[in-house]
Backbone:
């Protein structure tokens, strides 16, 4: 079944790629056939997070040469299907408006990692999305960016499934989920806590869902995936203890 | 557990970011080769047609006309002016080339424009 879910944000650095990758992997692990696509054509990082840096064909080639999307689809060692983009600066000039044509042939559930902001590339992603998640951190500038993105996406007919509040440290200076819901009129469907394990997983080039499934961020991604797929998931018992043992193992 | 190689990864990425499209060059080279082969077949085919004597137009004259028409569609008068021959003679030659399947004509109002057939380069 075709379903295109965009992961959007008003500003960069809020964790779109991390959310896209981990959400896709959690959905895959819950039995959903899903493909994650790196549509951040000017600053792609999906491949880096998955530990593969260069490819024969990528989304850039699909758009430039008119190759079928399957030619640029790879299967990660975790089983996750993904379509990366080239990191080389020589691909900066690719016309993002061709994205619409690329997704006309998509017949599967895809999660698109969008570029930040409201530039042409981001608008091209919104054009192909049926629905979207908006990622923000609990800081005022990021929330303002999210508000603008939600307004534009809605005006383009994209159904906003909800807001993902990322990197939450539960400090008194942070904007709370209920305040964000009040100003955007959109539900915060998942709060992902600030998690050092996630930072560590980036250096190991593994999604945190794979790196340490008992970590607080990994379990949050599973819960989000469960919400979006309808497949049941409950946090493992003694997760905190297991997470500590897993981390000790990683450090060794 | 995979070994942490942050420094190596950063250096590898640095190289990739400034790398030219080396992988694409290989693919493009293959594409060009295929295109050249196709072009070769088309040249052969055109040569055969130019050599055909059905129309009674000489090989040299045919080549001249093809060369002129490569710059775009023209009327028999325009071609006649370039080749310094009469419009009637030029028309005869062009009809011959049309018979050989090298050129095609389109009538626009009272003028008849000749152009190379798609497969004639």
Residues:
């Amino acid at each position: 079944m075709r379903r295109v879910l965009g992961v959007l944000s008003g500003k960069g650095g809020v964790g779109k790629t991390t959310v896209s990758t981990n959400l896709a992997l959690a959905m895959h692990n819950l039995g959903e056939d899903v493909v994650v696509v790196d549509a951040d054509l000017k600053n792609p990082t999906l491949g880096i997070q998955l530990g593969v840096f260069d490819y024969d064909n990528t989304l850039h080639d699909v758009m430039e040469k008119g190759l079928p999307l399957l030619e640029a689809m790879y299967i990660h060692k975790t089983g996750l299907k993904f379509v990366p983009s080239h990191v080389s600066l020589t691909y900066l000039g690719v016309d993002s408006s061709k994205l619409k044509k690329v997704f006309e042939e998509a017949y599967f559930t895809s999660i698109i990692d969008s570029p930040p902001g409201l530039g042409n590339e981001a608008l091209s992603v919104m054009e192909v999305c049926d629905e979207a998640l908006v990622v923000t951190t609990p800081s005022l500038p990021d929330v303002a960016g999210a508000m603008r993105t939600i307004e534009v996406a809605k005006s383009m007919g994209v159904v906003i499934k909800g807001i993902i509040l990322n990197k939450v440290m539960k400090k008194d200076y942070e904007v709370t989920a209920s305040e964000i819901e009040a100003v955007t009129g959109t539900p915060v469907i998942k709060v992902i806590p600030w998690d050092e394990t996630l930072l560590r997983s980036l250096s190991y080039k593994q999604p945190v869902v794979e790196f340490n499934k008992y970590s607080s961020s990994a379990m949050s991604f599973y819960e989000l995936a469960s919400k979006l797929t309808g497949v049941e998931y409950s946090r493992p018992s003694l997760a905190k203890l297991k997470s500590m043992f897993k981390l000790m193992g990683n450090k060794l | 557990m995979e070994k942490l190689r942050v420094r190596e990864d950063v250096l590898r990425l640095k190289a990739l970011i400034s790398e030219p499209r080396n992988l694409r060059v290989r693919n493009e080279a293959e594409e060009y080769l295929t295109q050249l082969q196709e072009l070769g077949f088309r040249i052969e085919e055109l040569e055969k047609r130019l050599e055909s004597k059905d129309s009674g137009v000489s090989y040299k004259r045919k080549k001249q006309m093809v060369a002129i028409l490569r710059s775009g569609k023209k009327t028999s008068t325009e071609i006649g002016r370039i080749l310094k021959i009469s419009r009637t003679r030029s028309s005869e030659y062009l009809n011959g080339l049309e018979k050989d399947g090298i050129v095609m004509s389109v009538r626009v109002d009272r003028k008849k424009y000749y152009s190379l057939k798609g497969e004639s380069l």
Remarks:
- Chain B has five helices and three strands.
- Residues 50 and 63 of chain B are 7 Å apart (CA to CA).
- Chain B has a mean pLDDT of 76.
- The helical segments of chain B are 6-17, 22-51, 59-69, 76-83, 87-99.
